[in-house]
What does this fold into?
Amino acid sequence: MTDSPATNGEDIPLEIHDLTAGYYKKPVLWGIDLQVPKGKLVGIVGPNGAGKSTLIKAIMGLVPPSSGWVKIFGKPYQENRRRVGYVPQRESVDWDFPVTVMDVVMMGRYGHIGWFKRPKKADREIARDCLDKVKMLPFAKRQISNLSGGQQQRVFLARALAQESDIYFMDEPFAGVDAATETAIIALLHELREKGKTLLVVHHDLPTARNYFDQLLLLNMRVVAYGETEEVFTYELLQKTYGGRLTILSEVADAVGQRAK
Amino acid sequence: MNDFIPAFEWQRVMVEPWAENLSTTFWIVLMGFLITAACGLIGNYLILRRMALVGDAISHSVLPGLAIAFLLSHSLNTVPMFIGALGAGIVTTVMIELIHKKTRVKQDSAIGITFSTLFAIGVILISFGQTDAVDLDTECVLYGEIAFVPLDLVKTELGPGMLSVVEKIPGLNSELFLDGNMLTIAPPSVIRMAVVTGVTLLLILVFYKELLVTSFDSGLSSSLGINATVVHYALMGMLSVIIVSAFEAVGAILVIAMLILPGATSSLLAYRLPTMFGITVVHALLSAVGGIHLATWLNCSPAGAMVVAGSALFALAWIFSPSQGLLLRWFGRELDKLDEEEIERLVKGT
Amino acid sequence: MVALLAFVPESAWAAKIGDVAEETSLGQQAARFFSFRDPSVRYAVIGSVLLGISCGLLGCFIVVRKMALVGDTLSHAVLPGVALGFLFSGVSVSGLFDWSFDVDNITKNPALIFAGAVIAGVAGTLLVTTLKQTTKIKEDSALGLTLASFFAVGICLLTMIQDLPTGNKSGIDKFMFGQAAAIGKGDIQLMLGVTMLIVAVVFVFYKELLVTSFDAGFARSIALPSEWVHHGLMLLVAFAVVIALQAVGVVLVSAMLITPAAAAYLLTDRMHRMLFLAVGFGVASGVIGAFISFLKPNIPTGPCMVLGASAVFAVAFFGGPRHGVLTRWWRHVSRSKRVQRENTLKAVYQVLENRAAQPEDSVSLKELAERRRETLDEVSGQAQALKQHRLVTLHEEGNKILFTPGGWQLACTIVRNHRLWELYLTNAANIAADHVHDDAEKIEHILGDDVVRELERMLDDTTRDPHGRAIPGFADIHKPFAPSASGPSGYGRSS
It folds into this structure.
């Protein structure tokens, strides 16, 4: 952990201002404003196509923003990317890839190891600890294609742990996992939060969202509401989030996309 | 068919190449091994990145780069050749991107259009220059002239002192290297290929982490600060250099096999990248040696025969692979051999 | 066409300069070629036309099914079949088990080569399918692997045949890069039969091919055997590839499948038009290639045909009416100019609005420059552009700007779009009022009438934008020069 003196930015792990972003110039997110305080477990919920994954990708610079800015601990993402951990959707990688579970977790250490160097013993220790935390240590030498969905997700979590970041973005970590893994993951998320980490988790299941998260971000192409779970989890706001897309907004987004072609 | 397929004479096919034609055989096998090893190493990454057909495209489209370099410099020297190949590699990559990003034409068609256009230009250029191009003709384009590799040897004269030292070194004191006081170093194309293979191996070792993570998960690589685009173009550049160094010996099309066969074979046999690299190198060696014997037996193109030998090795791996083998499939896995986790996996349907 | 003629070798020109004048030499050659006096020219041209038709037709399905590289693999994989076809011409069968092989009898027998090549091509595609099904090897690797392995076997056989005493005379080397002049009468008969078959099958099974290409899942749900359609198509593609081999060659024949069809794909959205266009392009590039290699026989025909097809593709790529790169660039430029004009108009409107002035009042260049934060020169140029489009008139040596009725209407529309959009973003999408301006700056130029009408329905009765400014309404737009003294009347009052 690299603890710099507490500045203003240090208290705000994530700040987004007027972010409009999308694919091929077609906006998927409009005018996003967000300030997430430290040590919170935030669920991002919204209907399909609401731009949940896009938001995470835009924060991490994987989708170019057409306006607005993002700051991580008061600095642009590029300067602070070491402090960001990322858990992509499980389907985003090729699980036939010839690596073992240990190799994947070790990738989380690459940011700390740097160019031209090999992993040291300390890195290996950390990777083992992380695997142990998700109860996957016995599988360390196994090839990743021989894992169940829940096990794959645990490996991804262990990799994120190995990154030793201060803020984590997770894209649907609960998708397609068994109940045991889901409980294990949520326990791990709570543990991380207790250590002062900030976690933003894309979640697709509304009923459990209420119990899992401290705060909720209701998203549907724009921020519908953001706040403490009990305040935001209301009939009106959920109705507003899930009550169909804003047709005009999508139509206009299509028109912008068409023009860019 | 007796006139067509010569009889298999043990002495002629298996012994003579090493006994009587050692100097030819050795250099051809070495060249074949170096090419297949370099291609196979980088080919592993092409396969993992689902870019095998981009390798196909670049191997075709290196030709105009080579032809232009040849027409301008009137030689097949290393520097103009590498420049031409790098240029062609970059043009190919950019053209494919342009066509499929700027229009509705999909990537597969974009690849097909790009390499056929560039290859056609190359063939026409070579046909024009055919009169003065001794080393570069349309047959060489197709299957190379690996048999000509040993014709051009770099030799150096040794002083009496050195001579006595060299004569004591086992291996070096054979007639393969020593002819009177002339020490044979190697054919220039073999030296070049050896350097290229060495550099490839070195780069793969040094940038192992970066190559691994960009190939496996580009999202993670960007969050680690590794620029996947830079890695991609570096890989394409390296690929162009390897292909052009191999070009004279094996031509534009057989090189595709050398890119894909070793990696495909090792992916059937291993589940870790370092092991795959090991198998790749073994595959390269076996196909080079097997190829030379096949070519001697059938009296056909050695480069083609090396690929056929490599394909045979692949077929063996396909049949006997412990995880994906055809034998396993044909005779079925017995259920009591499944361990618990595998049953769990089956039940969950993943 | 002109671009292609540039490829006519200089040496070919030079050789003719000696005996005849330069222009007549090419002219005479062309006359000789297109008069079809020589039977070899006749065969070459007919062959090119036939291969253009069959490759163009099937290429369309290859391109829309994203199987371009399957076509490429298939076309490389036929090589060992071609070689075996040659070899079997030397086999004479005198009884069931009484075969004899005579090296001296090897000839070019089109039917045998056709059979051998089709078998090899189909075997190649089956190998790809099996590899994908039984191993974890991905499609691209399976394709590349099959392509190169089959090709290597072909090369081995080829070099063995060339070592035979009759090998060099057999003309097998012409199969690598193609030589249209080597097409004989037997080839033409075969090509004609196969092309007719392909045309007939595509005509009869057009519906089935279309629906399986577009949505294989749906095709299966209506009980269409899409797998069989796929295999049938691959067989036809193998036919087309094999009849094109003699003219185009093994290495480049896939381009005759892909490139004309891809060019057609850029020009039309309808499948049947695409088929006709692709056939046209295929025939044109085929004949051009044959002509060029007629002019200079030591240039193989295949590359010439392929470059012809590439030139057609390049024209479609740059100049296509809807998807062309240059066309789109031009559209982009004219759109930016329009946006620029509209922004200037809006600025004139805003100057008037801030002064609470009448639409008939004039705005000075200086005011406009201040409003747009630009220099007088820049603003003056923009004013000239507005004048050219009759949106304003200029007075006092161009220093005063006055709306024309059309200009006033357009200005009202733009301002109205802008403010409606801001309102929509704040009201319906609850985005903060200080964020909506930038979006609206872009969106105001592209809002269509129907979207505006929807916005009006949603936001009815609203007359002020989030910043408290009046939204110009229909009354302002349609009764241009009679606004109330307090500035434009609000929207809402007009309906």
In short: The first strand of chain C starts at residue 91 and ends at 93.
